Amino acid sequence: MTIMTELRHAWIITVKEFRQLSRNKALMVPLFLFPIIMIIFFGYGMGGTVKNAPILIVNDDTGIASNALIQEIGSYTASYNGNPMFKMTYTKDMAQAEAESKIDAGMYKAILLIPHDYSERLAQNENVTLTLLTDSSDTTTSGIIVGFMRQILSRAGPVGLEIPNIYGNLEYLDFLTPAVIALTIFMGSVATTGSAIAGEKEDGTIVRILMTPVSRTSVILGKTIYQLILQLVRAVILILAAYFLVGFHMNGSWLLVSLVLVIFTLGGVGMGIVMSTRVDDMESFFQLNLLLTLPSMFVTGVFFPLSSVPDWMRYIAYCLPLTYANDAMRTIMIKGQGIGAISTDLIILSLFALITFSAGVHLFRREA
């Protein structure tokens, strides 16, 4: 066989592969679109820049010095690409306990408490201490706010800054761990469920299973129970590893964490079933899975707070269930709050689970 014959045969095979690709519409779109999406989300979602972080200043002092300080804080607010990094509001007569409750509720990223004798003590050249409460569950934003306030107060005279640890001594790892657990559960439940069904469709296993007395309902139920057990075990392993290896501390209820993860896993299983019914082979499923799930990690606040991303990307984040799972996990695990604080997140995650799981069951019954 001559070299030209070999090349001609190779070209025939090449043309055949491209024809197969052109017929696989589910694979073509994510194959070319995915790199573009990744560039956009990597570029904007990994920025870590704070914008419009809400800060409340509680001024219980009526003197000139406190007014001058407030004016300096307001005029010195830094900006990024024309957007202010902080959004200042002002009030008076607020106790520290009430201020902490507002931090817990997520109304403010920080609250600065100016005592009633601030101006008087400065006039007598005495040391005075201000209290800065921060939402330290968001370590990136709180760190930037603390640095900003210290820079301002360094020019105000003998003024100190007390920063109570509302949630304990937190580091970036404490901010990251709950969201990584939610991300792992989401991507794991979608990928393992969808790839299993897509693989069984590709090699004909699913047809042989359905030729047995096993019903479609039993197949879906078995896969769902498997995922619930698998993802909960993965979550426990991740939490224990974070605790023993890097010192992460769980402040909330294990039961609430389990509830969030069970609901989220059901949604992920449903999404995996829906995606697998839209493709005919595992390669197409993996490309579709990457297109729909992987960008979520860069837009839903897994690595950086949502305040660090552009507005248009934040609107996308509010349409993705991982955003609400991240918020619920951090509220429980870091802030130690109860079901009332995550009620909105639970409602949205439950709707996500109900819609995707119902759609997955319907499509699987029709396609299988």
Question: What does this entry look like structurally?
Answer:
This protein is an alpha/beta fold. It folds into two domains: 53-162, abc type-2 transporter like domain (abc type-2 transporter like fold), CATH 3.40.1710; 171-367, no CATH class. It contains 15 helices and seven strands. The protein has helices spanning 3-23, 25-45, 64-76, 96-104, 118-123, 139-153, 172-203, 205-210, 216-246, 254-277, 282-293, 296-299, 311-317, 321-333, 343-367; strands at residues 53-59, 79-80, 83-84, 86-91, 110-114, 128-134, 159-162. The strands form two sheets. The chain has a five-stranded mixed beta sheet. 36% of the residues are buried. The mean pLDDT is 78.
In the predicted model, the low-confidence regions spanning at least 5 consecutive residues are: none
Q: Which structural class should the secondary elements be placed in?
A: alpha/beta
Query: What is the helix fraction of residues, given as a range?
Result: 55-70%
* Largest sheet, strands/sense/barrel: 5 strands, mixed
**What portion of the residues fall into strands of 2 or more residues?**
5-15%
Q: Please give the count of helices.
A: 15
- Integer average pLDDT: 78
Spell out the helices and strands N to C: HHEHEEEHEHEHEHHHHHHHHH
Radius of gyration: 27 Å
CA(first)-CA(last) distance: 46 Å
Number of strands: 7
Strand order of the largest sheet: 4-1-5-6-7
What's the number of domains? Answer: 2
What is the overall silhouette? elongated
